[in-house]
Design brief:
heterodimer; A: 502 residues; alpha/beta; Rossmann fold; 6-stranded mixed beta sheet; globular; B: 347 residues; mainly alpha; ABC transporter involved in vitamin B12 uptake, BtuC; 15 helices; 0% strand
């Protein structure tokens, strides 16, 4: 082979204090499919965004066909032959197929959209992705997700893309459409298009890719031909990070089982999940983004509609709505702190007490003084740093906001705390405080369900860990009997255990 | 505590004072100097009460991140219901049975207001269609119902069928029959003050009030905290309907006739009062005291312009301009609109 079609070298990117990418290099030849592998937050998406012009790199250079490539934005990148197929589809659902394909590059019409003139080009692009039967005038929103995705690819082809980037293209596809997608990708490869493919699923990568490149914490940690490496080796590359001891543990002893979750089903997730929780334990749920962990917590809390399944506490069935579940002792810490977890316009006290105003109420009238007193006590308990309780929540740092959100669940006297990514986007010191709070809750005999994408914290903090994949709870073991590699293997749903090779 | 409440409404209060001072100076120099006379103050207070009472209801709705475009026609529909009852009455003031007829008429009027609000609330929480669209529809529906009831004409009940207290509700003159002798405050203003205190307490000290703020600030957070969102929405609109009904009563007492189409356009005046008072159309913010200031601002401008013989057309332009300026200033005080910083950076 000659020179690579795309070459990135020494790319670094910093977001505030975090270094998202550090001196990353990769190259893709025409007709090659490169799999970009890494955990959540390893920097894969950032890298693709730099490639597609959505972000600028701080340092480093990119070349296409030996020519310097510096996109000024997504539109520019597309003109230069780089197209990105995002995880969430980027089509205008109310427009027709042809209008979508021509969107962004109207030919020579002097501002007019000459559909008739372009129709041959549209047809050709549709045929290339196997959509021979699709009417170019059909409305995009009425097509299936799989068809829409192929449309995105055909749009990329219509803009004469030479490099196509796929960001987890199969995460929203039903199994049968995945095979079709792979077929199309193979066809693109034969046309000499360079492809970068992100996926969490190793079996998928094996099927599609020729070469791989692993990112961990923003660094290149390995690359080569996919056939020269075992799944176990890839997993080791993905997770092999330094273990630090930032995990204060509070001694606690799990007691008897008291919460039973039986065959909980939602649409599409959770997928028939059964689970028992004990008093005084921290139960971790691992899995990849999109594996249905958030959906599981929300269904347990009664926030999402469920198709079936029951939740019982000490043998009593609890009705599937938020108020009943809250009354029974459930509390949910939302993953989306900004828009769901906290009401940004309201004060700390207001947010903290929102779920438990009934404590202060006589005949519908709130005892504001008592409320303020209690709220301040809770703020102290979880060490919220603020001028006063009347400060607006939006003025606090992410870590302090999260403490308020946690304090709210404590304030509403929850016994089963469902925490969805409680440490996401929070500094290391605050993380440790949150682990300590979890530990002391368990010591008080409460139950904490801890969802996280960061394995080291799950392994250090939890008593038991269950791993979810594609909406199912794959396996539950004591935390001491899991290793990072095992968890990762279960999360990407490899059938048999990976041989370890450290 | 009063101090704290006032401080949070400094912006609208300051705007009101500026406008009052401006008109007072202009009035002294170019007109007869009646602007700050007690008589004119009574007239302005009564005018403000007519806007403020329905605006209290709108304040609740806007805090809950809703909007009610049907407020104006709902208000005149209530007035029409009352007028039709009085018009059809076979007993005049003083006759036996008049009191019970009057009571029935008032109850019917109140129920009409609540039913209008209930309809809005039910449609919004059941269909999840945005309040703007739902109330845009009910706005014309209420107008139509009003026209059917009134027989498509203005309803003017005979003077003998209107009780004295109703005639005196909005009295502002020197020799008027005031509710409290010696204290020359129009009854409408007293009613507005009492209602303001009640709603203010409701919003501050009750679970319902806090739930409305939470709902308006973030509906998903409210859901997460176990607040019954549909019931809260229903209650807010129904309660607002009650205020529109009382507003309808005051308006009827003012003009002594009822014309359903009078309400068209009133909703905008009501919304303007809330917005001038610091209410945010994205929800979560707004206050009763602010709304009072907002209503006063509108009335002071209108009254001042009349005294200065500024034509009505210019008054509209001035009020419109003030609303836009007030909202821009409010946005600058809370958070930072992107465009403003772009503007600063460019220059």
């Amino acid at each position: 082979m000659t020179a690579p079609l795309l070459e990135m070298s020494g790319i670094s990117k910093r977001f505030g204090p975090t270094l998202a990418l550090s001196d990353v290099s990769l190259s893709v030849f025409g007709g090659e499919i490169l799999a970009l592998i890494g955990e959540n937050g390893a920097g894969k998406s950032t890298l693709l965004k730099i490639l597609s012009g959505a972000h600028y790199a701080d340092t480093g250079s990119m070349q296409i066909d030996g020519q310097s490539y510096r996109p000024q934005g997504p539109h520019d990148a597309r003109e230069l032959g780089v197209a990105m197929i995002y995880q969430e589809l980027n089509l205008a659902p109310d427009l027709s197929v042809e209008d979508n394909i021509l969107l962004g590059h109207p030919g020579s019409g002097g501002g007019l959209l000459l559909r008739r003139k372009q129709r041959a080009k549209v047809r050709q692009a549709l045929d290339a992705v196997g959509l021979e039967d699709l009417d170019p005038r059909a409305i995009v929103g009425q097509q299936s997700v799989a068809t829409q995705q192929l449309l995105e690819i055909s749009r990329a082809l219509a803009s004469e893309a030479r490099i196509i980037l796929f960001d987890e293209p199969t995460s929203s596809l039903p199994q049968k459409d995945v095979a079709r997608l792979f077929e199309i990708i193979e066809r693109l490869r034969q046309q000499g298009i360079g492809i970068v493919y992100i996926s969490h699923f190793l079996e998928e990568i094996r099927e599609v890719a020729d070469t791989y490149s692993v990112l961990r914490d923003g660094n290149n940690v390995g690359s080569g031909k996919i056939d020269d490496v075992s799944d176990g080796q890839i997993v080791s590359l993905m997770v092999g990070r330094d273990v630090d001891d930032l995990y204060p543990s509070v001694p606690h002893q799990p007691g008897e089982t008291w919460v039973d979750i039986d065959q909980l089903c939602g649409s599409p997730y959770p997928n028939n999940v059964s689970l028992s929780l004990r008093r005084g334990e921290i139960f971790g749920i691992a899995g990849l983004v999109g594996a249905g962990r958030t959906e599981l917590l929300r269904s347990i809390f009664g926030l999402d509609h469920i198709d079936g399944g029951v939740v019982t506490i000490d043998g009593h069935n609890i009705a599937a709505n938020v108020r009943a579940r809250m009354k029974a002792g459930f509390g949910l810490l939302s993953e989306d702190r900004k828009s769901e977890g906290l009401a940004q316009d309201l004060s700390i006290i207001e947010n903290l007490t929102l779920g438990g105003l009934n404590q202060y109420t006589t005949c519908g009238v709130i005892d504001l003084k008592q409320r303020e007193k209690n709220a301040l006590r809770w703020m102290q308990q979880v060490e919220v740093k603020a001028h006063s309780g009347h400060q607006s929540i939006s003025e606090l740092s992410g870590g302090n906001q999260q403490k308020v959100a946690i304090a709210r669940i404590l304030h509403q006297q929850a016994d089963i705390l469902l925490m969805d990514e409680p440490t996401k986007g929070i500094d290391v010191g605050t993380k440790a405080e949150i682990y300590r709070v979890m530990g002391s809750l368990a010591a008080e005999g409460k139950t904490v369900v801890f969802v996280s994408s960061y394995l080291p914290e799950l392994l250090s903090v939890c008593d038991r860990i269950g791993v979810m994949s594609r909406g199912k709870l794959q396996e539950v073991r004591d935390a001491s009997r899991w290793t990072e590699d095992d968890v990762m293997a279960a999360a990407i749903a490899i059938e048999d255990n990976i041989p370890l090779n450290h | 505590m009063l101090n704290k409440i006032f401080r949070s409404q400094l912006g609208p209060l300051f705007a009101l004072l500026c406008i009052v001072v401006m008109f007072a100076i202009a009035d002294r120099n170019w007109s007869v100097g009646n602007f700050l006379s007690w008589g004119n103050i009574r007239i302005m207070a009564n005018g403000a009460a007519l806007i403020a009472v329905p605006a209290f209801g709108m304040t609740l709705i806007i805090i809950a991140a809703g909007i009610d475009l049907s407020a104006g026609t709902a208000l005149t529909l209530c007035g029409t219901v009352l007028a039709v009852q009085l018009n059809n009455s076979e007993v005049a003031v003083g006759d036996p049975g008049f009191a019970s007829m009057m009571a029935t008429a008032l109850v019917l009027m109140i129920l009409t207001g609540c039913a209008c609000g209930l309809a809005n609330g039910a449609l919004i929480s059941a269909t999840k269609v945005v309040p703007f669209i739902v109330t845009l529809g009910t706005m014309t529906i209420f107008l139509g119902i009003g026209q059917i009831i009134s027989g498509e004409s203005t309803v003017g009940p005979p003077r003998g069928n209107i009780p004295e207290w109703l005639k005196q509700l909005n009295v502002t003159g020197k020799n008027g029959d005031y509710l409290i002798d010696g204290l020359m405050i129009p009854t409408s203003v007293l009613i507005a003050c009492i209602l303001a205190i009640l709603v203010g307490l409701l919003m501050r000290y009750t679970v319902f009030g806090r739930n409305v703020f939470a709902l308006g600030s973030s509906e998903s957070t409210a859901r997460l905290c176990g607040i019954n969102v549909p019931l809260t929405i229903l209650s807010v609109y129904t309660l607002a309907g009650l205020f529109f009904a009382i507003g309808g009563l005051l308006y009827f007492a003012e003009v002594k006739v009822a014309n359903p189409s009078d309400g068209t356009g009133k909703e905008l005046e009501i919304i303007a009062a809330v917005v001038l008072g610091g209410g945010s159309l994205s929800g979560g913010r707004g206050s009763i005291l602010g709304t009072i200031f907002g209503a006063l601002i509108i009335i002071v401008i209108r009254n001042g312009c009349t005294l200065l013989s500024i034509p009505n057309t210019y008054t509209h332009i001035i009020i419109g301009g003030i609303i836009i300026i007030a909202v821009i200033v409010d946005q600058l005080r809370h958070g930072s609109p992107e465009w403003f910083f772009h503007l600063i950076r460019k220059t």
